[in-house]
Design a protein that fits this description.
By secondary structure, the chain is α+β, with helices and mostly antiparallel strands. The protein has 6 domains: 26-197, Hypothetical protein af1432 (Orthogonal Bundle), CATH 1.10.3210; 215-355, Beta Polymerase, domain 2; 410-486, Roll (Ubiquitin-like (UB roll)), CATH 3.10.20; 498-567, no CATH class; 594-646, no CATH class; 654-728, Alpha-Beta Plaits (2-Layer Sandwich), CATH 3.30.70. Strand 18 (682-690) and strand 19 form a beta hairpin. The longest helix has 35 residues, at 214-248. Pathway: Purine metabolism; ppGpp biosynthesis; ppGpp from GDP: step 1/1.
């Protein structure tokens, strides 16, 4: 198999000290190309080299070597992928537009349109001025991604360029090394992963990790080295046992041990806050067989040899990852109870897993047949989404933010009510799912059912769940959704819809809501006293009536509050007086000024809960938790129901209800009351329900500051041995 990211040094390993041999010449490149390209195309590449060498004459890299060595090294990486001759030519020319007087028109005239477009796609925007370095980088990445939409080879040239730059990073000063390494880890390595190019991605991550965190890299490397010595014999025994069982079953296979990427280990330790001693999947075993059927046979053999760990089996053959990756993943209880990760895949799957979209060129003339074709199709689907993001993004910085969001490392698989499978990034919510189905579904969703139960729109989804979206024609997206959506499609769709609502649609909706609120008083907008309107507009800093209607339509202002002000029923001083207070401080829920606020006693909302409000005669705005059963009937009534959002720092204390099941013993109430008091909370009410002579259920209504305070109290009560169950009361 051809090494996708072959170094110019034989047997070199990725790492901080990796260098590039200065003896790699154009003749060496031509020898590589002669293996798979016809002579006339190799001559074209040689002519390109002569042109680039002349253009870069007198230029040196930071290391002091002639600049032409860099384009040659990039071309070698491309040759390792067995790319077509136009891609090799673009790799050799990739810096001439940026660093020399050569123009795109000159390249087009000398080498043709195809090569000129590839070089232009990789070249940075050096002739434009930007307000900041961040904006310049964002615009350059935006330009590259748009060129990538037109021709996938652009990103392959750019990744090869970035790989060689990372291999020779030691020549730069430390601050520049860190900046380039961070950009590599945040942008280029995830792009390589998204395109299924795992071999290249692993080297980019290793080099980036070593440059950005050199001390952490050395410490973790030393820890892995020590673990390798301790587990070497164990892994050899496991490999030998698997090989023996496969041979007995007549299965031809390659069984190889592998080490987890250092950067992947580092990210896992950080995300789960775990020491290295608790990481068990440092080493894994890969089984490569001939075809799909044999993959499942090999899985059965390994499960018979060692028992599988429940909940750790993943079938990426039946449901491939977004980048085309296919494999069976399982974790086994090895000797001495040590978990061992096993991957099982076919030869073609292994090639695609390592090379990704490059497998299309790497193996199209060999045994691989259509290897990489499915990955390319998935990449093009992703790029369609990139193009949609570009069209809707307000700026290059917003576009870059959306691209970063979309370069997710893990996926969850969600079922629609009809049984179709949808793929979403880990952490995706029901709103992300709604926008993945269709933008119109996302724009009009009001609630979600997860496995047939109502759930918050902000609840993270898990693989295997069935999600049903409830929509309403009159619904509109809530700006607060931007705080929890994770997919770029949801983020761009949501922002685009919110921007469009700021036009005629928002004004029309605001007018309908205002007219409906005024109708209770027998008034219309036309009959409002102009003096009251002018006073309200001045108090709220609005230019005219349309600006007020726009604010109401977007949900920034409540129609009933605006109506009360227009009718002269309250002023700013009344607004502060009528707001519900807790703990001596005004309750801070955005957009609720001037309304009496009441907390629903059915669900007891707390700061941190997703909340919604229902306008009720005599009670003002009743605040419910978003999942409360009592607000479902109001979701499609835009004049009475609205999503709410807590302020950043809501003050005061709030009522919360918990239900505790305890052993029916003397002194239990006193013991729990003491613990609640220790946690700085008061008991506002307590009720009892005796289940039987052994168990009693107590329901406490407590004063708490927020959800975290309540969680601490529940954890403290759960520590009492006699407490068998404790849960928060839900609406």
């Amino acid at each position: 198999m051809v090494d996708l990211v072959a170094s110019t040094q034989p047997n070199a390993q990725p790492g901080v000290s990796r260098g590039e041999s200065t003896r790699f010449l154009v003749s060496d490149l031509c020898k590589m190309l002669e293996v798979y390209l016809p002579p006339e195309q190799v001559r074209e590449v040689y002519r390109t080299y002569l042109y680039a060498a002349e253009a870069h004459t007198g230029q040196n890299r930071q290391s002091g070597e002639p600049y032409i060595f860099h384009p040659l090294a990039v071309a070698r990486v491309m040759a390792g992928m067995r790319m077509d001759h136009h891609s090799i030519m673009a790799a050799i020319l990739h810096d001439v537009m940026e660093d020399t007087p050569v123009t795109k028109d000159q390249l087009r005239e000398t080498f043709g349109e195809e090569v000129a477009e590839l070089v232009d796609g990789v070249s940075k925007l050096t002739h434009l001025k930007f307000q900041s370095y961040a904006e310049a980088q964002a615009e350059n990445i935006r330009k590259m991604m748009m060129a990538m939409v037109r021709d996938l080879r652009v990103i392959l040239v750019k990744l090869a360029d970035r790989l060689h730059n990372m291999r020779t990073l030691s020549a730069l000063r430390s601050d520049k090394r860190r900046r380039i390494a961070r950009e590599t880890l945040e942008i280029y390595a995830p792009i390589a992963q998204r395109l299924g190019m795992n071999a290249l991605r692993r080297e980019l991550e290793t080099l980036g990790f070593a440059a950005l965190y050199p001390v952490r890299f050395r410490v973790l490397s030393a820890a892995v080295e020590r673990a390798r010595g301790r587990r070497k014999e164990l892994m050899q025994n496991v490999e030998a046992a698997i090989v023996r069982r496969l041979e007995e079953a007549g299965i031809q296979a390659r069984v190889v041990g592998r080490e987890k990427n250092l950067y992947s280990l580092y990210r896992k330790m950080r995300a789960k806050r775990m020491p290295f001693s608790e990481v068990f999947d440092v080493f894994a075993i890969r089984i490569v067989v001939t075809d799909i059927d044999t993959c499942y046979r090999a899985l059965g053999i390994t499960h018979n040899l060692y028992k599988p760990v429940a909940g750790h089996f993943k079938d990426y053959i039946a449901i491939p990852k977004a980048n085309g990756y296919q494999s069976l993943h399982t974790v086994l209880f090895g000797p001495h109870g040590i978990p061992i990760e096993v991957q099982i895949r076919s030869e073609e799957m292994d090639r695609v897993a390592e090379s990704g979209i490059a497998a299309h060129w790497l193996y199209k003339s060999g045994e691989g047949g259509n290897a990489g074709a499915g990955t390319q199709a998935r990449a093009r689907e992703w790029l369609k989404g990139i193009l949609e993001m570009q069209q809707r993004a307000g700026s290059s910085l917003e576009f870059l933010e959306n691209v970063k969001v979309d370069l997710f490392p893990d996926e969850v698989y969600i079922f629609t009510p009809k049984g179709d499978i949808m793929e979403l990034p880990r952490g995706a919510t029901a709103v992300d799912f709604a926008y993945a189905v269709h933008s119109d579904v996302g724009n009009t969703c009001v609630a979600a059912k997860i496995d047939r139960h109502l759930a918050p729109l902000s609840a993270p989804l898990e693989s295997g769940q069935t999600v049903e979206i409830i929509t309403s024609p009159t619904a509109r997206p809530n700006p607060a959704w931007l705080n929890f959506v994770v997919t770029a499609k949801a983020r761009t769709g949501l922002r685009h819809r919110l921007k469009s609502l700021q036009g005629d649609e928002a004004i029309a909706l605001g007018r309908r809501l205002m007219e409906k609120s005024l109708s209770a008083s027998g008034k219309t907008l036309e009959s409002i006293d102009p003096a009251h309107l002018a006073e309200l507009l001045a108090a709220w800093g609005l230019a005219d009536l349309d600006a007020l209607l726009n604010d109401v339509g977007l949900g920034n202002r409540l129609a009933p509050l605006a109506v009360r002000r227009l009718l002269g029923e309250c002023d700013e001083s009344d607004a502060a007086a009528t707001a519900q207070t807790t703990g001596g401080k005004p309750l801070v829920i955005r957009g609720s000024e001037g309304l009496v606020l009441t907390f629903a006693k059915c669900c007891y909302p707390l700061p941190g809960d997703p909340i919604a409000g229902v306008l009720s005669a005599g009670r003002g705005l009743v605040v419910h938790r978003e999942t409360c059963r009592n607000v479902v009937e109001f979701r499609d009534k835009a004049d009475r129901w609205m999503p709410l959002q807590w302020s950043d720092e809501p003050a005061g204390e709030y009522a919360a209800a918990i239900r505790v099941m305890v052993s029916n013993q003397r002194g239990m109430l006193a013991q729990m009351a003491a613990r609640i008091a220790e946690m700085e909370s008061n008991i506002e009410n307590v009720s009892f329900e005796e289940r039987d002579s052994m168990l009693t259920t107590m329901t406490f209504v407590l004063s708490v500051r927020d959800r975290r305070h309540l969680a601490h109290i529940m954890r403290r009560l759960r520590a009492i041995p006699e407490v068998s169950k404790i849960a928060r009361v839900r609406g």
